[in-house]
Every structure is written in C-alpha cells, then in structure tokens.
Design brief:
10 strands, 8-stranded mixed sheet, alpha/beta, 240 residues, single chain, Rossmann fold
Length: 240
Amino acid sequence: MKTAIAIRHLDFEDLGTLEPLLVTRGYAVRYLDATIDDLHTVDTASADLLVVLGGPIGAFDDTIYPFIGDELAVILQRLESRRPMLGICLGAQVIARALGASVASMGVKEIGFAPLTLTEEGEASPLTALGKVPVLHWHGDRFDIPAGATRLAGTAICANQAFSIDSHVLALQCHLEADPRRIERWLVGHACELATAGVDPRALRAEARALQSDLPLAARMAFASWLDGIETAPPRGASS
C-alpha cells in the first residue's frame, strides 16, 4: 500500500477533501502533529507522499516555535530526494524558505473565497481543473517564487499563490484542501483572527455554503490530476 504522511499544526486544518481521494487511490494516510510529535523519530523519507499543512504562524518563526526547524529539515531532505511533496499555506511557505526564497508579511490579511488567476504555466498544470471556482484564502504572509520553481497562480491581493518544481513538488498558498462543508471549525478556531481582521464569519459561512458542491469537486479534480502526474513520473534520479 502507498503511504501519505501529513504534517499538521492545527487539528482542524487537516487534509480535508484530499484525504478521501488519497484513500480511494490506495494511500494509507498518517498524520504527524508538528507541535507534539518528534519528527526525527519518524521515517518521512520513505513515504510515497509528504504533505505539509497550514497553520497560523510564520515560516521563519523557529526561534519562537522550534519545531519549525524540524519541519525544515524534513522538507530539505524531501527536496533532495525529489520525492513527491505538497505544501499548503504555511507548508508552502516553509518549502519556499527551504529553497532560499523570502517569506514575509503582506501587511494585510487575505481571508475569504476567491478564484485564482492562473499563469500560462498554471493553465497547463493540474490547477486548470479549478476553472473560475473560488477557493479559500486565509493568510497574512506571502512567499516569493524560489529560483528554479514555476509560478502557477496569483490573486489581486497576493501575486504568488502557487508554484511547482517539475512534477514532484506543488506549493499552494491557498487552502484548496479546505472542505466548505466544515467551515464552522475554521470560523471558531480562528475567531480571534477574524475579529482582528474585521472579517464577518457570517459572510464566510454564506460563501462556503454556496460552494459546498462545486469547490470539493473542482479540488478533487485538481488534486487527482497532480497525483496522476506524480504516480506516473520517472523514478527519482531518472532523466526528465
């Protein structure tokens, strides 16, 4: 059986709509909680897929949250091996950091549902399956595109929303995995952030309700297309 390891920082920021897709495709899914699990004692290197999920801290906050340093080590090892890896929000930012790119505050919060604007390369990527379906944005930091990576998407507020490295790395600033049918967990878990940012949870709830069918379907198509690519890619170390 194939294995997928997901590193998470908050219980409700999980694999969302991606998890049942992975299970259907024959993956055994295991979560590691970055805040309590010792990443050094787990063989993340041999997993068929590594997913690094989101969280309300910064990619360079390891002096405050030392476990970020452990995550960085795991990601650097994964990049070196060229084995498949997906980063979402904070996960994408730590991947960008590992690749030498800047991660910094935007000065504003991008919270809510909005479609991505794809680059030409993005239109040829798995993200094209999203069409104009709005996805969930929930962040205040942004990453630069690392050297050697391909920029795939942006929004009016955040120009860099996604990048890839060949077929084996996909980094998403947005929360494509978030299930709009479970938005209430986010609204409660991030209630203080919403209040500080002046975002009305009732508006987010209404947007999520309107997308509860279209968004999971579009996300599943995009993730399935990416999984197709990593599952049929040449073995690591092979000529591309």
